């Protein structure tokens, strides 16, 4: 390892996700392990421009591995999208001799990093932190596994009520552009139907599916709906539509909302975060830049940031088929 | 104990709540203990009119103490509100020699029971099962404690995100007419402000409170809002109002919804349900009728059903004051 | 309120329990509300003698209401049991003008406080913090409710395995001298038998009970055992005894151990802690001393510390009877 | 798909693990989807020899996806290890026209299946269900992910107490021959040291590590120990050894025990179980036999049962290194 780098900055940006703190801890401790200084940058690119920095040693990250959210906080920054903003940010980093960055976040975070790298040739490694699992170059983003557990636990509770009253519930989960949460949590929660942005089941087939479900003897049903589904109606309109078109359906809606982003990370996300933090720092120390750390085939990998940003994740067709079979 | 009663029916009615299954189990086992037959009545008064009955012995209720919802299901019944409906129901009970009832539910359930008792002099004991804690004659209804834990766990997760982004969240919890859930869970979750039906804080004082909170150095805030609060705006309108009237507030809304009714009951609710079931059956066996079982001063008590239905619970003024001090 | 007191110290001592942090937060914020300074004393009496103090303002206790353990740490102190030790401690308090104390802990903590008060006429109010619920003067100690939930969740998991394999499990829970945890969690977890220090079921009757349980059709059983039960054998000896004396029993042992003391407090414990902290500080400000704050009949009460220390809590006989009926 | 098979039997055997019920549900529903009859075999090979069978249709497996344990129960069978026993079992299957088997369990289960297949040329597909993750041919066995979450949640609670009292805890987790649970949960829980069967850290290096940990400013420590670690002392002897050889260490032991096997499965395990059930049934319908279904590189795979039984899983060396860096 070259270790010519003496000081590394770490920050979180974009929506928070469970496991970000575990990743920060890992970055900080890996730096300590290699005798590299580590500096926490608060509130993402916004804090970078303000020089909102704090040196972090191994002890400073104790007792955060199991905390949701991010101790470094997160924020959006309009100013950083301008060349002037980035110049200020760069100067702030130079002022305290930060020589490389680990940025934890999603697409937007990585895009910012790419531009910054291009303008100042500044070494950057990204860690994919988002519950949506919509980043190319890793089978799991940080927080995805935890969010799935949160969602199935919520739907388990909702099913108690659905079963007791023979009701149909539409449960909306996060996922504006991708249906990974809806599909996986839908299968995990035993949902009768799953509506995702990647597929348009169509309103008529939804009605048919619900009727078939009732004929087959199911007394209650859960339909999991991704925020960004393409069926043409939001979750409340869906309720009205079904009540109008199907007799004797007692329909309810539940929008799970922001709680999906929080909570103590699962063991999976803590381990993933720990591995990613090590890989990110050691990649920088090996002189690498402009990569995103990822998990592929259970191994740590590097994907060029540009690919990570441009690439699209695909919905798992096999799992879609499993979900159909399971609702037999 | 007179034990002239040979067969007791048990049913759940109205909205389900965690602990109902534990109460059913207790009723069934207490009957078995006293060598009294027990019959489960499905879907409340609706199933009673249909004769949807099932004999239950001690083994039939194993492994349900920790399940949310109600294995006897619940339903609303319009027909039971008519004298004809109740006559049919009574005949169905007579047909299988059910001589007394334990009804688990809330106000509506008890009202139905009162009328039924008046018309047919049929022995009835009520068990208060509702998460809202809005029944007079008991400090805790079945499911209230579990719902509080569910709500604070959700808000703990939301706070992770609120803190990470320096945001203000309005979190709507159940409680159309009473603020018990909002007040207790609000204090438990460390909410900065709590809006309940029993008090109208007023929009201006809410703004003042939020501004004071920010000045005091709080970077994020949670406001817990009961469904039925009297501030004059729903939770989404509140968001707009605050964003319009206060600068630099990033406001989000989360409506917790039906998951508050489900989930495995807390130990408190399981113990309470076990005690209430014993008290209900033994009260019937002692020849008592038209009472609701309750918990007062940690002891099992009986309150006339009529009082239970007419009486109003009061919000805990001391706790309101505690909540104000805690948001210092 | 007289408010002649200008500075209050707060500390935790003895075994930690969930809710201690919520109580510290409440003490600190109530002081802030009344414009009284508050000082955190680390590691109980040990830290008091070392002058290990930290001023605490309202913001310093944010985000701890939902944390188990105690941010002020806890320790045992031999030296404080000597007059010399207490003199040093008193001097340290005088040095920084601490005029009154809120001590959070159990019997040992209160005994220390009583002696200290006697020697120096130092105003002290106690808050009962222990999972054992063995303090006279309150129906619930801080942490008891949380520990019960932890125990029933563990036993729910153990029952999955017990049911799958038709096994008998002895589950040991905390409680050296009192059986409150065992009795309540035993009823909550649907245990077939509960062994507590207050009752000696006797080995033969245990065998009879297990055989009766099997005859009645139960395929698996859970026996909850308090650490300090008086049956004459520890939990591993019980296993051997049962396997020797009963045919075809596959017996397992699980000792739940220290996890019972930790974890995020339940809503109940958070609310209780918040109320107790307010009552403790305001009692001091009203000139009271040598009392323990308690919960009786859902209201905040004061019990003379001497009574709290000497008094014995009683096992709930009615609940014992409920547990017997439930194992029908 | 040939679909010449008309009836499939499904059973669970060996230690239970979370996700087994989800796998049973998936097998049953996949059969229903393909119009193949499905029969549940109770208590593994033991029940097979007794003809303890129950036809299962799609509705019979509702509401079990989220339950720990196995509704088909599990048992060990000595008799099945004899040719006579297996002959009886085979006859029982023939009697009801079961033509193929899905067996869910671990090594022992698969060995039984292999012999049975050899003797009667009976089509068998295995699903790896065990929390230990010690089966070759899959990166995750059913229940492993859930057990990891259970363990880290327990250690999170223990850490509350450890931190409050500046203590050292030895926490024993399951894993007689393999350290997968200890290593992953150890990293997830932020353990300072992890002792596994695959590595012998040595007693002296353990002492050194603990001392280094203390010098580095850590006030409390968690050491995770797999049941089968090779350090030469059990977890209680370790406590004594450390207390004898290191000054001022307050050491505690916690043996997590059987609760690690139970509880509602994580979303990961539910999805995995659903996928495995589909793959198992469809493999049989395609005429395949003697394979184990597995997850490799996020895809469903088939590994010859013989390899699955003989192969050894390897501890993840990269993760061991991560754990060392994390304890900096």
From TrEMBL, chains A, B, C, D:
It catalyses: beta-D-fructose 6-phosphate + ATP = beta-D-fructose 1,6-bisphosphate + ADP + H(+). Allosterically activated by ADP and other diphosphonucleosides, and allosterically inhibited by phosphoenolpyruvate. GO terms for molecular function: 6-phosphofructokinase activity; AMP binding; ATP binding; fructose-6-phosphate binding; identical protein binding; metal ion binding; monosaccharide binding. Keywords: Allosteric enzyme, ATP-binding, Cytoplasm, Glycolysis, Kinase, Magnesium, Metal-binding, Nucleotide-binding, Transferase. ADP binds at residues 25-29, 159, 190-192, 218-220. Pathway: Carbohydrate degradation; glycolysis; D-glyceraldehyde 3-phosphate and glycerone phosphate from D-glucose: step 3/4. Residues 7-283 form the Phosphofructokinase domain. Homotetramer. Belongs to the phosphofructokinase type A (PFKA) family. ATP-dependent PFK group I subfamily. Prokaryotic clade 'B1' sub-subfamily. This is ATP-dependent 6-phosphofructokinase. It comes from Gelidibacter salicanalis.
């Amino acid at each position: 390892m070259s270790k010519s780098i003496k000081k590394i900055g770490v920050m979180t940006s974009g929506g928070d996700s469970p496991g970000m703190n575990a990743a920060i801890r890992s970055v900080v401790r890996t730096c300590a392990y290699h005798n590299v200084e580590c500096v926490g940058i608060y509130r993402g690119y916004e804090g970078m421009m303000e020089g909102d920095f704090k040196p972090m040693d191994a002890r400073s990250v104790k007792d955060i591995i199991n905390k949701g959210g991010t101790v470094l906080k997160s924020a959006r920054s309009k100013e950083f999208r301008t060349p002037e903003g980035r110049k200020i940010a760069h100067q702030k980093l130079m002022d305290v001799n930060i020589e490389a960055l680990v940025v934890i976040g999603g697409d937007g975070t990585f895009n910012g990093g790419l531009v910054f790298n291009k303008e100042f040739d500044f070494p950057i490694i990204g860690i994919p932190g988002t519950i949506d699992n919509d980043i190319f170059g890793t089978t799991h983003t940080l927080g995805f596994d935890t969010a799935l557990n949160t969602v199935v636990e919520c739907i388990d509770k909702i099913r108690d009520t659905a079963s007791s009253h023979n009701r149909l519930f539409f449960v909306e989960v996060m996922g504006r552009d991708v249906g990974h949460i809806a599909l996986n949590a839908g299968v995990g929660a035993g949902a009768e139907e799953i509506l995702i942005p990647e597929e348009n089941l169509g309103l008529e087939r939804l009605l048919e599916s619900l009727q078939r479900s009732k004929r087959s003897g199911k007394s209650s049903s859960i339909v999991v709906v991704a925020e960004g589904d393409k069926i043409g109606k939001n979750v409340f309109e869906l309720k009205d539509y079904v009540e109008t078109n199907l007799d004797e359906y007692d329909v309810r809606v539940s929008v799970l909302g922001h709680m999906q982003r929080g909570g103590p990370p699962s063991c999976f996300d803590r381990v993933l975060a720990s591995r990613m933090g090590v890989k990110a720092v050691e990649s920088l120390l090996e002189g690498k830049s402009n990569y995103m750390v990822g998990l592929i085939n259970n191994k740590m990998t590097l994907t060029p940031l540009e690919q990570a940003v441009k690439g699209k994740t695909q919905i798992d067709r096999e799992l879609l088929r499993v979900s159909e079979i399971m609702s037999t």
